[in-house]
Amino acid sequence: MTELKQAIRNWGHELGFQQIGIAGIDIREDEERLMQWLQQQRHGAMGYMQRHGRMRARPQELLPGTLRVISARMDYLPPGTRAAYDILAQPALGYVSRYALGRDYHKLMRRRLARLTERIQSHSLALEQRAFVDSAPVLEKAFARNAGLGWIGKHTTLINRHAGSWFFLGEILTDLPLPADTPASAHCGSCHACIDICPTQAIVAPYELDARRCISYLTIELREAIPEEFRKAMGNRIYGCDDCQLVCPWNKFAQLSIEPDFMPRHGLDAAALTQLFAWSEAEFLTRTEGSAIRRIGHECWLRNIAVALGNAPTSPEVLAALHSRARHPSALVREHVQWAIAQHRDTP
Predict the structure, then answer these.
(1) 61: three-class secondary structure by DSSP
(2) What is the b/e burial string over 63-84, where b = at least 16 CB atoms within 10 angstroms of the residue's CB?
(3) Signal peptide span per the entry (predicted)?
(4) Per residue in 37-58, pLDDT tens?
(5) Is there a domain that residue 96 lies in?
(6) Structural domain count of the chain
(7) The domain containing residue 8 runs over which residues?
(8) pLDDT given for residue 52 in this prediction
(9) Which of 127, 186, 191, 278 could form a cystine bridge with 151, CB 3.0-4.6 A?
(10) Contact status, residue 287 vs residue 266, Cβ threshold 8 Å
């Protein structure tokens, strides 16, 4: 098993993963924290979190016979993009979370993990194995921590002391009794930069995130109206938010991705809000083909950009863009457009 474990690491590196670790399946403390989080309703409209409940911490219920979780990470920060802070400082541009600038990582990582699973199968007596990338109820950060890939930071994102936090996670559940790795120790110390920087104060305490306040949740998971109390704080963030990662001192060690598929597409690393707001639904579907962005749909895309346009400096171009959607068939879009127009009326 020790030799097989090293072979799995080698195969993982050949497939483009920067790190592979092995975790046991006992994460009872994380399970209890999850249940407390759900009881506090901090999952908001993400009903699937409630539906799966404790199963997220019990992979043996998801795949009977599971003994270990093989955790993998892949760097995604694309090289050659406009600096994130530059985009955030230019309110006429739309900020898209760095992970969503290129192709959808789910498919790429799932294919690689499937190939790794096949290789493990051909070199072992494994009977039960399944690979997942956000496609099953698994507490991936807890298992990744126990697999030695990093610690869960105060912003609740995994941090690796040699690679920061700009990476994706995936896992393989297996019935192989592989030697487990030593869980990673925490190194946030007294730093609270991520808590201080959060535009909507979604990190309500160290290691505690209220998703209902998080801009990533508001722009991606929420399908209803964005609460007005958060709209100004969203600034020009139209898909996700990276502020807590941008300010994390450990990301000075982050490595740029070597995957061509993670390179920005359609200029989304520095696109004008008015340009993006003009996309028809057909254009949206075409330009987000193979992208994680497509998942929110054209309606929420327009909703998010309307908020950003409401926060942009008043200009004839911005006002013309907003008025062009003032009679949109969607009540959701119309409401956010009306709010945005009102922001410009109130501008001195």
Answers:
(1) helix
(2) beebbbbbbbbbbbbbeebeeb
(3) none
(4) 999 999 999 988 888 889 999 9
(5) no
(6) 1
(7) 2-80+101-174
(8) 84
(9) 186
(10) yes
How far apart are alpha carbons 267 and 272 in whole angstroms?
9
| 52 within domain boundaries | yes
Residue ranges at the known binding site for [4Fe-4S] cluster:
188, 191, 194, 198, 214, 241, 244, 248
Nearest alpha carbon to residue 237 among 40, 87, 130: 87
Residues that constitute the known binding site for cob(II)alamin: 56, 134, 158, 169, 216, 241-242
Note whether 161 and 195 are within 8 A (CB): no
Q: Is residue 213 part of a domain?
A: no
Q: What is the pLDDT of residue 347?
A: 62
CA 42 to the chain's CA centroid: 17
pLDDT in tens, 264-296: 998 999 999 999 999 999 999 999 999 999 999
Active site residue 86: no
pTM: 0.94
Query: What is the DSSP secondary structure assignment for residue 66, as one 8-state letter?
Result: -
Question: Of 134, 196, 210, 269, which residue is the catalytic one?
Answer: 134
The pLDDT score that the predictor gives to residue 127 is: 80
Helix residue spans in the chain (DSSP H): 2-14, 28-39, 47-52, 59-62, 84-88, 105-122, 140-146, 193-197, 215-216, 228-234, 243-246, 273-277, 281-287, 297-311, 316-324, 331-345
CA proximity to 301, closest of 239, 235, 218, 241: 239
Residue 179: inside a domain: no
Q: What is the pLDDT of residue 80?
A: 83
